[in-house]
């Protein structure tokens, strides 16, 4: 009986830890490179450094993703209501051509990069991508304040941005 109770406590503890809010990106994520629109490779840590001192909203998306396209009007509204925030789009598209067409077609304003190995790759795993669109909010000091938000979480994203002003 004591073993069962100990196992249940250990399981409950592990479950709480695994669902905890992350406040920083892993070393794997930071060292991974992403494809820039000019064809160069840029380390994720260098992309984040560029935005240090500004609140940053990251959207992980793909041009083929129906939920991503459906959420774009809400995302554009978020951008309009928060003009002092920086926006970073990270695509999980399979080809650069489709990714760039998606940026143009949907008139996405912000910085754009593409994961080199899509949804099942090193970068996606390093930031725990299990669904797109996925939103991450980073404060002015580089701390993650909202790690896991999806297209139904715009109220939570707006509230997070409001609290950071």
Outline the structure in words.
This protein is 44% helix and 22% strand. By secondary structure, the protein is of the alpha/beta class. The protein has one domain (23-164): Glutaredoxin (3-Layer(aba) Sandwich), CATH 3.40.30.10. It has a seven-stranded mixed β-sheet. Strand 3 (56-61), helix 4 (66-81) and strand 4 (86-91) form a beta-alpha-beta unit. The protein is globular and about 35 Å long. Residues 10-19 have low confidence and may be disordered. This is TlpA family protein disulfide reductase. Residues 23-165 form the Thioredoxin domain. It comes from Flavobacterium rhamnosiphilum.
Structural class: alpha/beta
Order of helices and strands: HHEEHEHEHEHEEH
CATH architectural designation: 3-Layer(aba) Sandwich
Unreliable parts: 10-19
Rg over CA atoms, rounded to whole Å, is 17 Å
List keywords for this structure.
165 residues, alpha/beta, Glutaredoxin, 7-stranded mixed β-sheet, 7 helices, 7 strands, 22% strand, globular, redox-active center, cytochrome c-type biogenesis, Redoxin, signal
